[in-house]
Amino acid sequence: MNRDKTEPLRSLDVDAVHRLRVQIREFRIPPVQDALVLGRRAGVGCHAIRKALHLLMAAPFVHIELDDEIVSDLIVRDTVLRRFPRDQLVTFVLERIKPLMGEEEILHLEIETEVDLTAQTGDRRQDVFSDRP
Fold first, then answer.
1. pLDDT over 70 percentage in the chain
2. Residue 77 predicted with pLDDT over 90
3. pLDDT band per the 50, 70, 90 thresholds, residue 120
4. Residue 22 or residue 126, greater confidence
């Protein structure tokens, strides 16, 4: 490649930076950690995936059918929905994940949930785990 003949950048207006980070590892059992987002025209249907998860994993998953032009289904580990409201998760998937996917894709989600608990006694709030009044 002749570096002397490279053209200068025509425009300095850059709206996005794209990065790719790839982790390579062996196929894992269980194949799903927390959730799957299924595109409307995914190669494997929701029924087949749910059956496979039932056979491969002891943890229960919840099926959420969505009425959307791109995303057809969300399959979420039951424990995630005990820590995070279902409707907020659906909203998050439709607003943040959907724009990143095609209707033929199935996306694997690793979800970290964090819950802060406080207790209120009288007019004071205190940390549930605090020994102090």
1. 74
2. yes
3. confident
4. 22
| Tokens, residue 73 | 């289904």
Do you know the residue count of the chain?
133
Pairing of strands 35-39, 71-77: antiparallel
DSSP 23-63: ------SSS-SSEEEEETT-SS-HHHHHHHHHHH-SS-EEE
**Burial letters 38-66, b for 16+ CB under 10 A, else e:** bbeebeeebeebeeebeeeeeeebeebeb
- Greatest alpha-carbon pair distance for the chain in Å reads 76
Measure the CA–CA gap between 71 and 97, rounded to whole angstroms.
Answer: 9
Confidence of residue 127 (pLDDT cuts 50, 70, 90): low
Which residues neighbour 107 within 8 Å (Cβ) at sequence distance 6 or greater?
A: 36, 37, 97, 100, 101
Residue 132 has pLDDT above 60, yes or no: no
Distance from C-alpha of 15 to C-alpha of 42, rounded to nearest angstrom: 30
